[in-house]
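Appendix B. Raw example, untouched.
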Amino acid sequence: MSKRPETHTFPEGVITEPLPGEVIYPLLRQQKTWSDIMHFNRNLANILAVGGTLEQIYRRWQYFDIVTTPYGSQLGKNTPGTVTQDRVKAYAEFGWFTGSVAMRLAELYGGARLEHNEEYYTALINCDRELILPLLREDKQLREELIWGMLAVEGNRDVSLTQRDSYKPAQKVNSPGWSCALIEATETGLISRDRLIDALLSSLMSDFPAYRVGWFSRLVTGLKLTAEEIAARQSEFLTLFSSPIGPSVTLGVQHIHRLWTKNPQALDATAFAYAAPAVCAGTKANALKILTMLQALYRAGTLDAAACEDAVVMALSHTHAQVQAAALKHLEEWVQAGAADNASADAVVFAERARELYRDYRSQLDPLVVAQIQGSPLLEDGYSPENSRGSGTEDAALTEAADIEAAAAEALAASRAVIHRYWDTPVRPVTASDVQERARALLHHQVAPCATLDTLNEADQPETHAGCELELELLTAYLLSADGTAQSPNLLEQLVPICLKKLNHWGLEWFDMRAHITVLAAAGKLRERPKASEMTQREDPGTVPNLHYMYSRHAAFFGTGFKDALGALKSRQSYTPLATSELFGGWVHPDTLVRRYAKNLADGAPILRQDFTAALLRVRVPEVLPPYATDEQRQDAEHRRDEALTLLESLEEQYVKNAQEDAPRSAPTQIRVLRSALDGTLATGRINPYLESITVAQREKSWGLQLNGVAHGASTPELNAFRGLATAHHSEEGQYALLYPSRAEPLAFYCASSNWYILDHSAFDRSLYLALAAHPGAWGPACAFVFAAGFSEQRVEIRSLAVEIMHRVLDDQLSLEDATAGFVNFVPLAMLNRWALALTDFAQLDARAAVRFFARLIPHLDTGANSLGKLLGAFSQALATLDPATRAELVDESLRAWLGTLTGSSQKARYARNILNQVQG
């Protein structure tokens, strides 16, 4: 192999020839990268194995660092072959940049003076694995000072002990790293074992994230502490009981349990009982261990019932049935102790306390636990929930539950009425007196939906994500009017600097960009930039990049309708937009639509195609009113349609039957389409069937959802508005919320196609659920599909939000049949353990509605599905809160037959039998 030509001058002591045990990897001359050092680092074990020294490795590293630094130049303040604080920073920030042992060798053999700060200790984590143990043997300062600073730092995303060391205690052979080196160093006496244990426990009790603290937990396990070592550190392990990190809690429980097993007398029982309640709210295994230890200490007389009470109470509200059953055993022993002949006064008091706790927590207990408690001493005087039906106490409880249910239903109806009234409230158009104020608010994205209303209280206004979009429509409608084209340049002049400043940044959302460009166009400042040959040295600050550049930069966002309106604003041509909403729900009254259309014809303004199409989708006729519409609203819509048809007949007479030569050619076609929209045939015969034909499915080769049937059948202009659903971008929900006010499916399809997260396939953004909740139209299976994803959401706040919205819309905007169909479509993607949590939340809002809905859904599930037992357990618990007649009514024959197919001793089979027993009495 030919040697690479060298033109470098090396400092004294640098080793340029290969060391014994070093393997040379040939590289091309032009490969001036860090590859040489990477290959050299792989030879470290071989060099040390044949007698090489750490100083030789450092001198050889200097050679590679010099010849591989591009053109021999300096990197920052770092001369090749030396280590300064800049190089330490690189070692600390980049996980792939290995070889940080060079910085310590530079201190030992190169005379480097480095600051031992947090950055230094983080870089030390990134040490070459083969050199850690040899360096510990040679470097006294590393043993006595530096490694303890390293164990106290958290690290970062790329460099941390967890990231760089894959040590596993249960694994027979582990790769060399800090864990193995530290364990061997304690075994050979290089470092103090007690000091290492204390340092690890100190880091475990810090506020490190769960991922980074795992390494410390595994190393403590790998050290295999003796009972004496655990006893000397009981307070630290008991402190871990209240840690928010699950593995740290488990580590504490395991070591305290080991101490109790090996030497029960060494356990501080009082401190243990004080720390135990935090564990009983955690995992099942830890809670059962704690309850077992408390029971043994109670029987031995070491602890009394008062010391165990807090932990037992916490266990009674645990989600797992076995933990609840273990807690009930504690209560039974308290009752038995109080019933003994020689019982103390405290034992008698706690016996009564045990019965009181059972009565208080009985409704939260798992149905299987309740079913197994027959004959327990907790059931005083033969009392049990089964044989007490029909008693005065039970009747009073049922009456109280019925009153609560009636009050909740009344509150729900009142809430729905307020929201319905909000959607039917007229908007306040923009005028010359308030255009500046409302435009400024819109630019800062701080606008309330179309300003404060006189007809509604501010507290009554539901949160709506279509509000800003609606405000932009109202502002555009004024700017395009005759009054707006005349006055807006002067009125909006002072807003131009704000728009120009913000448009020069990349951080604007699509909606904000449209709002800023609209204001600039209305102010007369959105003009073409001059050609390069015509530009002065200092360009006019009142210009922005030309429209062609803006469209090419954001072509995927700017729709044809926005471009048409922008063109009209630039040309200063007055125009009356047809689709501008009149109501907060997004609708346009039919008579208003025809009047706007007639005005444009009379003014000679060409009808904008996208505006005409949008108006057809928003016209408010009786056939498209949502199911909650009142008779009065339907009569009003019918009356306005009759008036619109009368106006349309006069237009037909003027522009179709007796058309002049200068009449618009498109008028006959547009009038014909308007008539089909007014009589409802356009919506019922074309748009609604098209939306019903679209389906949502999971992609075959990647995570995500795809819409099937969007392009198929969308051949007419009014259906072309829906073509963008399959390729929609994030943060466009405002446009799709107002696209078709009569039905919410377009917004649901937008949610499914553009906001499906890759990492957690069940996660949607919170704003999307709020946007759907604010939609005034009827819901279909696609909307229920989105909320099925919400029920399967990991984040508690999102799952609870989905449950609350589902509770409000079910049987109002969403029928039970469509809700069931949407959830059934989502079943292949569902996580039933999270559905079980959602069912529990739903039952707390309305147990009858929750049981009614899931009774329809459960027969569509596969009997072998994961976590089916948890879902059936939640259903059984919700069912137990209803009276027997309601149970029999809601659990129909199809569900009973499905439950009958679950046999055996599995958890789901036992829950199925429990549900059938509740229904059959």
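End of appendix B.
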